[in-house]
Amino acid sequence: MTVTAVEGFVASGLSCGIKSNGRPDLALVATTDGSPVTAAGVFTSNRMTAAPVQVCRDHLLATGGRATGVVLNSGNANAATGAAGLADAERMCEITAEALGCSPDEVLVCSTGWIGYPLPMDAITAGIGRVADFLNPAGGQAAAEAIMTTDTVPKNTQVDGDGFTVGGMAKGAAMLEPNMATMLAVLTTDAAVDPTTATGLLQGAVATSFNCLTVDGAESTNDTVLLLASGRAGPTDPSVLGRALSESCRDLAVQMADDAEGSTKTVFLTVTGAATDTEAARAARHTANCQLVKCSWYGQDPYWGRIAAQMGAAGIAFDPDTITIDYGGQVVYADGRAPEVNAEALAAHMAGRRLDLTVDLGQGTGTAEVVTTDLTHAYIDENMRTS
Fold it and tell me: Which of 182, 272, 324, 372 is catalytic?
């Protein structure tokens, strides 16, 4: 259940010395025969764009949406590194291309980790040759482990479609805020699809998954989601492929929320009854990123007042007399008052890992959903480090 669950792809992962703790930090995903296949990418909208993101965009443009492989490193983001960083990202592609027997612009590159530090290119140069030697059809798990930073578990997915398969791996545990997150994801499929269609389908899948995930409201410099399509399963209905891609991305996004730094709650916040979908999304995000609300989730407190206050402050059509707030099927606020609830059932729901929170604004038919988390002491402990 990972990128190599799909026919036509191999992968590997190992430690090359980027991380001082000796953990795996270099991964490679490639086509089995070294031939380029359809490729598509979706990237961060942060204008402080990391070098590997710039290189990926350039290479996809140069090839018309074709790629043979993706080389990924963790432990160093190669962001805020100027011209030297761009040269290093290009060099990673060149060395990988030599190992795979393809053109450098047929290689895509991803990096994640500390921002503002130069890549240890001596270690990476030696490592790429070794990671290429270990490419195999069962190497997806090793690759997923090698892209982890503060993740505690690797994140993999597999969705079986109508005669085709979508596989994938991802990393991400903090700085999670659309567009996308501090995240890398590589998806593979054996469905046949052209680059233009693949790009559109991937954008649609990201919009309903990674772009609906927020942990702390911070957007990264390196966010990248890539799709490689071998075509070995032949053509498929684009809408069916799109649904499979969306399901894969959604699965990975929820895994990220479950593994977010220090989190004890994964919250599925649904807003209904907004004047428009756009206003529903605004209200959902405004509430999901509120530190007061996040702290109440950590305290297992269904404090409806904080929810109502954030919805009312979101700058949308709002009437305090029409809002209804529901935790796990228990209405905690409606018709301008807090009704009687099943206290035992509500407490049990709030004590669980997954919280279902629905807010009906009573203003129209607009809906939106975000996946988010609580805010804990452990999150602060992790992110107060500077080195």
Answer: 182
354: helix, coil or strand? strand
Q: Which residues contact 99 (CB under 8 A, 6 or more apart)?
A: 128, 129, 132
Low-confidence residues in the chain, pLDDT < 50: 175-176, 386-387
Overall size of the chain counted in residues: 387
d(CA 358, CA 157): 27
**Other C-beta atoms within 10 Å of 298: how many?**
18
Q: Which CATH superfamily is domain 3-258 in?
A: L-amino peptidase D-ALA esterase/amidase (3.60.70.12)
**Crossing angle (nearest 10°) for helices 121-133 and 82-100:** 20
Residue corresponding to tokens 């949406």: 65
- CATH of 266-383 given 2.10.109.10, 2.60.40.10, 3.40.50.150, 3.10.20.340: 3.10.20.340
| Domain range summary for the chain, segments of one domain joined by + | 3-258, 266-383
Q: Is 268 exposed, middle or buried (0-12, 13-18, 19+ CB in 10 A)?
A: middle
- β-strands 37-43, 165-171: how paired? unpaired
Q: Could you tell me the CA-to-CA distances from 252 to 153, 312, 355 in Å, in that order?
A: 12, 32, 18
Cα 4 from Cα 18, distance rounded (Å): 25
259: Cα within 13 Å, side-chain hemisphere: 21
| pLDDT score for 175 | 46
| Count of alpha carbons within 13 angstroms of residue 273, beta-carbon side | 14
Reply yes or no on whether 182 is catalytic: yes
pLDDT at 387: 46
What distances in angstroms separate CA 97 from CA 36, 42, 84, 152, 269, one per listed residue? Answer: 11, 22, 20, 31, 44
Q: What are residue 109's phi and psi, to 5 degrees? A: -135, 140
Rg of the chain's alpha carbons, rounded to an integer? 22
Predicted confidence at residue 385, as pLDDT, reads 58
pLDDT at 179: 57
- In the chain, how long is the greatest CA-to-CA distance? 68
Cβ contact 246:203 at 8 Å = no
